């Protein structure tokens, strides 16, 4: 029994941010019904290559992108543009605790699937809407994707080298928005069940999440009035917090306090650096960053990274290799923590997945049903939840409602 066992989620969302939120709820034990358009489904299914291959090595047409954010859900195909489809979705919402959607502002009101309509039918409903810019403001009607929000929200300004801002490779604003949406939903459910007895509406905007993610980078600016310089593979806290080249690859070292810095200097056989008046306190190391980093770079290039990592580990200095993905999944700690799991997929057989990082002692995440095939559960869900007969379902399918 998961922590959210008994919670029913109606997931009307597509692509990444909102589906990730719904996947987190599914990992925690909620029953998540994913609504997809008949015939085409979530457009995230097409975001390849790579595409998942079946047992015979043929493409299933399902992109790896889709598999990353839809495990644990049941796929039901319903055309929300038809009156019958709208009625099905309203009836499902009346039985649900949560509705998640990421349509453009105002779109679902045309179909009677907006927050006001559904919450009038089910006052206990928590309705979470994920959009690019939020439900109000001068940009509310604009479309947008992760890269737009990394650029506009300042995330790109924090990354890259001094002369060139750079996007984070992964869709970080989408991912953060999905995580924060899940947190907001859990808070709303707790408030409903402990305080009010009623649900509420959650307005999640990717732009908001991108700006909020600036954290201490933004605070440095707000306190000082100075725009922080981009530092490539360096951090914005203590110094050193930096990637360094060794003779055969890169490592990342953080020595933010005097004890760690002294241990680092001793490990590098340069104890005089720790006593240098430029570097003997954290503020001095920040002010004299360039001089210190030049010394560290020169010394670390003299040996391979395994040599330095062994010594740094023995000295209790935080450090790690800069790994490519094959090395990530070969890492003994990653293996021990079980971060790569396998599940059974109806077409592919065994499917590798990333495990949930949420570790709960009484209600651990142990069940990882595969991401569904398109419409895999349509008939079963509509029979169970709404009482449709086979004849009803055949008629709906003939009219392309499902």
Automatic annotation (TrEMBL):
Keyword terms, alphabetized: Transferase
Biological classification of the source: Bacteria, Pseudomonadati, Pseudomonadota, Betaproteobacteria, Burkholderiales
Protein name stated in the entry: CoA transferase
GO molecular function, one term: transferase activity
Keyword Hydrolase: no
InterPro entries named among the record's database cross-references: CoA-transferase_III_domain, CoA-Trfase_fam_III, CoA-Trfase_III_dom3_sf, CoA-Trfase_III_dom_1_sf
Top-rank taxon, per record: Bacteria
């Amino acid at each position: 029994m998961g922590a959210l066992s008994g919670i029913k989620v109606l997931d009307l969302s597509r692509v990444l941010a909102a589906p990730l939120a719904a996947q987190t709820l599914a990992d925690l034990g909620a029953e998540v019904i994913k609504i997809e358009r008949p015939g085409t489904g979530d457009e995230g299914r097409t975001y390849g290559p790579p595409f998942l291959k079946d047992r015979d090595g043929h493409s299933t047409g399902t992109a790896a992108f889709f598999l990353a954010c839809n495990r644990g859900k049941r796929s039901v195909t319903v055309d929300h543009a038809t009156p019958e489809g709208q009625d099905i979705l309203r009836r499902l919402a009346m039985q649900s605790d949560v509705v998640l959607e990421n349509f453009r502002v105002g779109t679902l009101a045309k179909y009677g699937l907006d927050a006001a309509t559904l919450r009038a039918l089910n006052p206990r409903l928590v309705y979470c809407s994920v959009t690019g810019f939020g439900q109000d403001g001068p940009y509310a009607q604009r479309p947008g994707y992760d890269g737009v929000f990394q650029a506009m929200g300042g995330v790109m300004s924090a990354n890259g080298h001094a002369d060139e801002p750079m996007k984070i490779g992964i869709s970080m604003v989408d991912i953060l928005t999905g995580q924060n949406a899940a947190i907001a939903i859990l808070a709303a459910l707790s408030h409903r069940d402990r305080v009010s007895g009623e649900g509420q509406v959650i307005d999640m905007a990717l732009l908001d999440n991108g700006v909020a993610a600036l954290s201490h980078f933004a605070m440095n600016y707000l306190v000082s009035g100075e725009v922080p310089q981009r530092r490539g593979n360096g951090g914005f806290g203590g110094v050193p917090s930096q990637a360094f080249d060794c003779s055969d690859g890169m490592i990342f070292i953080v020595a933010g306090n005097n004890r760690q810095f002294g241990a680092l200097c001793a490990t590098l056989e340069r104890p005089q650096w720790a006593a240098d008046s430029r570097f003997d306190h954290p503020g001095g190391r920040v002010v004299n960053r360039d001089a210190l980093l030049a010394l560290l770079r020169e010394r670390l290039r003299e040996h391979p990274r395994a040599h330095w990592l062994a010594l740094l580990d023995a000295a209790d200095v935080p450090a790690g290799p800069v790994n490519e993905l094959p090395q990530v999944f070969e890492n003994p700690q990653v293996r021990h923590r079980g971060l790569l799991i396998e599940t059974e997929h109806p077409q592919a057989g065994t499917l590798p997945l990333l495990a949930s990082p949420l570790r709960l002692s009484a209600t651990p995440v142990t069940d990882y049903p595969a991401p569904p095939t398109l419409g895999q559960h349509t008939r079963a869900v509509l029979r169970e939840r709404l009482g449709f007969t086979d004849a009803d379902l055949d008629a709906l399918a003939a009219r392309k409602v499902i």
